[in-house]
Amino acid sequence: MNKNVISCQINDLSQVPDAALFDFANKETVRHVHDFHRSLPGYRPTPLVRLPGLADYLGIRELWIKDENHRFDLQAFKVLGASYAMAKCLGEVIGLGDDELTYHNIIAHKSAYDHITFVTATDGNHGRAVAWAAKLFGCKAVVYLPKGSSLIRLEAIRHYGAQASITGMNFDDSVMHASGKAQENGWTLLQDTSWEGYEKVPRHIMQGYSTLITESIGPGKAHLPTHVFVQAGVGSFAAAMAGTLVSLAGGDAPTLIVVEPEGAPCLFESSKKEERVRIQGDLATIMAGLSCGEPSLIGWQVLKSAVSAFLMCSDEVARKGMKVLGNPLPEDPCIISGESGAVTLGALFEIMTDKQNMKIRKDIGLNSDSRVLLFSTEGDTDPDLYRDIVWA
Fold it and tell me: Is 355 a residue of the active site?
């Protein structure tokens, strides 16, 4: 019995993108975001890795993977969103415009904001990014993790000086808990999902993610793919990738495919029911960073317009992706990718190699001319789990 199960929901809501919907990632904003990130101590672009051997094996023309295992010392992309959103909040306090928003300009006014406490809920990587950025800028951070969270990830957050604890709730309820604590204590909520009345900070987080595309496609669209597979929890990251690609590539924007775990397929089910829905329960999956039950309001608005298909994958698909990336063909480099980072490669691998996925392959237009971009959004942020999977 094949456990590498993939279900595909073609997005019947997709349409010609409304330019206003994607204005959050317009070219000027994307430039400001990248300039800000380049001002951070230790910034350097993460590798865009070409895998010619695997591309040939899968029967596609090109395969690129953006390897976020090398993002600062955090092994995950989330810091791009958290740092920019935090900088925007601090910039408002001290009166900095977008052109002035740099690390050195912010830290020069530290005494004006060092009383601020940022609070968030997280499955791990976002909370670590908030803790890292708060330490960098000289603020305080409080982080709540949902039940079942790894103790390794908890301690990784505390390593950066944040007050962190595991709640007895799932991710979505932990988010509401963090929101309540922000109101109760006068803290600033820095959450990577949005709902009615809470959209400004999540939009800034999404804008922060745009640097991934700026670094990836290069001047003159040198690495513009035909297909982009992007993993999704609440959908903010996926929507940021969609918005930035539409803004920078215009009519040449690639086919976008969203990938979720079968234990928490909130976007898949929203597409199926043609409305934003919340998945109940424990949201059990090894893909901790994708264990989310309710789509971000902004994320869903963007994705329902721009995405071609939503994929729902078993945990075995993520395991397959981790193993393939960690055990490359002779001509390809090794990529250390965690469970949430590798699921897109696992999905691509199964679609291109398993005959029972031929209809999915046809529906999303994958063929020998396809140039595919994936994001390995995290490295082995839980080393014990990584070894258990890749060594098994």
Answer: no
End-to-end C-alpha distance for the chain, whole angstroms:
19
What whole-number distance in Å separates Cα of residue 171 and Cα of residue 233?
10
Domains of the chain, first to last:
6-76+206-391 (3.40.50.1100), 79-198 (3.40.50.1100)
48 Cβ contact partners less than 8 Å away, ≥ 6 residues apart:
64, 65, 66, 67, 215, 216, 223
**What integer best gives the mean pLDDT of the chain?**
94
In tens, the pLDDT along 12-54 reads 776 655 678 889 999 999 999 999 999 999 999 999 999 999 9
Q: What is the pLDDT of residues 256-304, one digit of tens each?
A: 999 999 999 999 999 999 999 999 888 899 998 899 999 999 999 999 9
Which two tokens mark 217?
Answer: 């496609």
Rounded distance, CA 84 to CA 1, Å?
A: 46
Between helices 151-158 and 125-137, what is the axis angle to 10°? 10
Catalytic pick among 78, 88, 304, 320:
78
Which residue has 């001002």 as its token pair? Answer: 39
Burial 176-185 (b: 16+ CB within 10 A, else e): ebbbebbeee
67, 88, 123, 332: which one is catalytic?
123
42: burial class by Cβ within 10 Å (0-12, 13-18, 19+)? Answer: exposed
pTM to 2 decimal places: 0.95
Question: What one-character-per-residue DSSP string does 307-367 give?
Answer: -SEEEEE-HHHHHHHHHHHHS--TTS------HHHHHHHHHHHHHHH-GGGHHHHHHTT--
**Between β-strands 371-376 and 227-231, what pairing exists: parallel, antiparallel or unpaired?**
parallel
Residue 183, CA atoms < 13 Å, CB-side half-sphere: 6
Is the per-residue pLDDT at 1 higher than 60? Answer: no
Q: Catalytic: 123?
A: yes
Exposed / middle / buried, residue 350 (Cβ in 10 Å: 0-12, 13-18, 19+): buried
One-letter amino acid of 267: L
255 phi, psi to nearest 5 deg: -70, 130
